Amino acid sequence: MRSIMQLPFEKPIYEIEEKIEELKTLNENSETDLSSQIETLTNQLTEFKKNLYDNLKPYERIQIARHPMRPTFLDYIHSITTDWIELHGDRAGTDDRAIIGGIARLNDKPVMFIGTQKGKTTRENLEYNFGMPNPQGYRKALRLFKHAEKFGFPIVTIVDTPGAYPGIKAEETGQGVAIAENLLEMAKLKVPVIAIITGEGCSGGALGLAVANKVYMLENAYYTVITPEGCASILWNDANYADKAAEALKITADFLLESKIIDGIIKEPLGGAHYDPEETYKNMKEMILKGLDELSKLSEKDLIEKRYSKYRAMGEISFEKQD
Known about the structure:
The protein is of the alpha/beta class. It has 2 domains: 16-55; 62-312, 2-enoyl-CoA Hydratase, Chain A, domain 1. Helix content is 48%, strand content 15%. The chain contains 14 helices and 8 strands. The chain has helices at residues 11-29, 35-54, 58-65, 73-80, 122-127, 135-151, 168-172, 175-187, 203-207, 228-236, 242-249, 253-258, 277-295, 300-312; strands at residues 82-86, 99-106, 109-116, 155-161, 193-202, 214-218, 222-224, 264-266. Strands 1, 2, 3, 4, 5, 6, 7 and 8 form an 8-stranded mixed β-sheet that branches. A hairpin with a 2-residue loop joins strand 2 (99-106) and strand 3. Helix 1 packs antiparallel against helix 2 (35-54), helix 6 runs parallel beside helix 8 (175-187) and helix 10 crosses helix 11. The chain is globular. The relative contact order is 0.11.
């Protein structure tokens, strides 16, 4: 039996697994051979799981993206890189723990990694502010962007945030300005920039780390201007309509790839990244290396111009002539 937290739509899977376990126990403790029934039920479970996860609704994917055991920024760093050195502080007296950055080797090449960090326990989530950065976090990220540019390191950002911290103190210390400065400066960076949305990618809190030459998403991640709950609260005065909002917002990886908002989808194991983190790490590393190889062939001028053109082209609408 799996110990991973069960999501509501996964209940039938657990029920079938429990039945299989019951049959296995009976098979071991009785003279009756139940192996054929076990095999049949196991095959049915495999087919059911594939059909379920291949046809998830947007809000079901969002539930996977928010799973508490989903790999975090530091999980990815420790699994796909070597010689990780974390760099602390915004040089103004603060080290926001919701954004972590540093230098590591990716296949022996130095890369600047910066990302939002969530926790898997209450203590960790309090330390990392549930992955919601304050202005000081974005200023730390900007310092590291400039550091990478100075030494010619490519930049990879890993984003999983429900949004920038919305508290009064964050507003008083310049949350909007800090994010805006990151957007401006990331657009002008002279080194390759790759951004990966690994879970939640909400609003300016995500975009403040995601102005990149290549933007990739994990298969069950989502990327949006507002959470479905926030959208539902505005449109229908009821966050319980979040599933309806998720459908309307078109925020899942397949739609965003089709709309050219992102440049690629990183495959997840069946059920989500938390079921087989090692496979997820492997797929992510391959995508990063492929992206960096493509971008390494571009000049500084081309990197900036293509990054600008990428974002300038977003949101185009064509109207068909009506008779």
